[in-house]
Specification:
- It is rod-shaped and about 115 Å long.
- It folds into two domains: 45 residues; 31 residues.
- The protein is 64% helix and 0% strand.
- It is an all-alpha fold.
- It has two helices and no strands.
């Protein structure tokens, strides 16, 4: 049993058209929001994953080098008694004494 009501058919067409329009507006709004977000994020100073990984590897290598140098320093300091560093006094320039006889 099918209805031949023209008003009902027009209403269904109107609702289908409105649903299509709203779906298109939603897609357009989503695409616009995505473009604006990308533009906003592009202006920020973020690093890429490759740059981050490179700096991370450099920091790990530096930590390893510091650890190696620290253990080497500990070994050198532990090898003997610590050296006592005495301050060096500046010697006064030796002036020939007037009393000293000249060598012939």
């Amino acid at each position: 049993m099918q209805s031949d009501n023209k008003m009902f058919d027009d209403f269904v067409k109107f609702v289908n058209g409105a649903a299509g329009t709203f779906a298109g507006m939603a897609r357009e709004g989503q695409a616009d929001a995505k473009a604006r977000f990308k533009e906003w994020m592009g202006g920020a100073d973020f690093v890429s994953r490759e740059e981050f990984d490179a700096v991370k590897a450099m920091a790990a290598a530096a930590r390893d080098e510091v650890d190696a140098l620290r253990s080497r320093l500990d070994a050198l300091e532990g090898a003997g008694p610590p050296a006592v560093v005495k301050p060096v006094k500046k010697a006064a320039a030796a002036k020939p004494s007037a009393k000293a006889a000249p060598k012939s």
